[in-house]
Amino acid sequence: MHTHLFVDGLDVITRSDSRMAGLAPGLLLRPGGPLHPTDTARTVDVAAEGGPDPGPDRLTLRVRLRGETVVWSGLMYPGADNMVVDEVRFRLDQYLGEIERARTALRTPP
To answer: Cβ-count burial of 46 within 10 angstroms (0-12 exposed, 13-18 middle, 19+ buried)?
Structure first.
């Protein structure tokens, strides 16, 4: 199982590098995990080369908290208008709510 990261309906991982598959949701979405924002920016691995075993190439982004805004930077993928997206911002409450929604969905069998 791997994580898909969508921003404005676009799969950031696939659009950034189609060879990549998102890392395990249990790793990325856990409380205090890599996608949890902090005041200090940090670089986070979000995907690795697909295949039976993850390859050495990684897809990374920088996560930081600025007041009540979560900022992902270091991105390079084509947006809906085909312009390069290099940074996205989320409201903190909405961001944390979405992480919790995804975690709950993982724990709830279909």
So the answer is: buried
pTM of the model: 0.86
Q: What is the CA radius of gyration of the chain?
A: 14
| Confidence (pLDDT) at 53 | 57
Would you give the distance in Å from CA 61 to the centre of its chain? 8
The answer to whether 43 and 1 have CB atoms below 8 angstroms apart is no
pLDDT tens across 15-52, in order?
A: 898 888 899 888 899 888 999 999 999 999 999 987 55
Confidence band of 110 (pLDDT split at 50, 70, 90)? low
Phi-psi region of 81 (alpha: psi -120 to 50; beta: other; left: phi over 0): alpha
**Using CA atoms, how far apart are residues 84 and 75, in angstroms rounded to an integer?**
9
Helix (H, G, I), strand (E, B) or coil at 74: strand
CA 78 – CA 60 distance, rounded (Å): 16
